[in-house]
Give the backbone structure.
Amino acid sequence: MPFFSLRRGDDAARPLVVGTPLKSMAKPILIWPDKVLQRPTAKVTDFGPALDTLLAEMTESLREAEGIGIAANQIGISLRLAWVGRPDGTFFEIVNPELLETSEPVTYEEGCLSVPGEFEDTPRFRKVKVRYQDRSGTWQTLEAEDRLAHVLQHEIDHLNGTVFVSHLSSLKRELIRKKMLKLQKTGSDEHAHPHRGHDHAHHGHDHSHHHEDHGRDDD
Ligand code: CO
C-alpha cells in the first residue's frame, strides 16, 4: 500500500463527492491568500464556554469539508486552536500548541482546505513532539509520528500564519496563488463548497505518489 488517504474515514482513493449543498450552518473556510490565514493567531486565554462554542463551530466546518484538521483562523477566528484528526478517525483539540522537537526530515504530499484542489510534495518531519492545552486548559505533551505528526505540523503552521504553499518554491506558490485568486473571483458558489479540497489528502510514506488518483476529486 504505497499511500493512503488522509481524509477522515481513511477511505483511500475513493473519489471525493463534491458540490453537495451545505446542510448545516457551517462557517465557510477561508481561501488562501486571505490575510487572516497569513497572520499569526492570538493565544487563547479564556477556557470558558465560549471556547466550547468555537470548537463546536469548527467541528461543523470540518465535517462539511471532510477534512482531517482545521485551524480556527480557517473560519476567520484568529485564535491559537485547532482540531487534529487521529489515524483512527477521531479528533482532538489543540489549544496554544507549540512544536517542541522535530526529527527525520521527510516529504509528504499535502493539501489544505484553504487551498482547494492543490496537492504538492512538502518538506516536513516524520516525528514531532508537541505541547498544547486541551479545552480545560490542562497542558499535554504528545510525541507523534507519520500521519499524526504531519497533521500537527500542518495545523500548527496555520496558527503561525503559514499555509503549506509557503514551503514550496516561489514558482509553484505563485502559480497556486493565481489559481486561488481566480477561484475567489468566480464567486460565492466556490466559497460555498470548501470541500472541493481535502486537508492533507494523500500521504506518501514511501514518497511514491498517485497524482491521477485525486485529479478528478476537484472538478
Ligand atoms: Co490546512
User: Anything to note?
Assistant: The beta strands are 3-5, 69-71, 81-85, 91-112, 115-133, 139-145, 202-204.
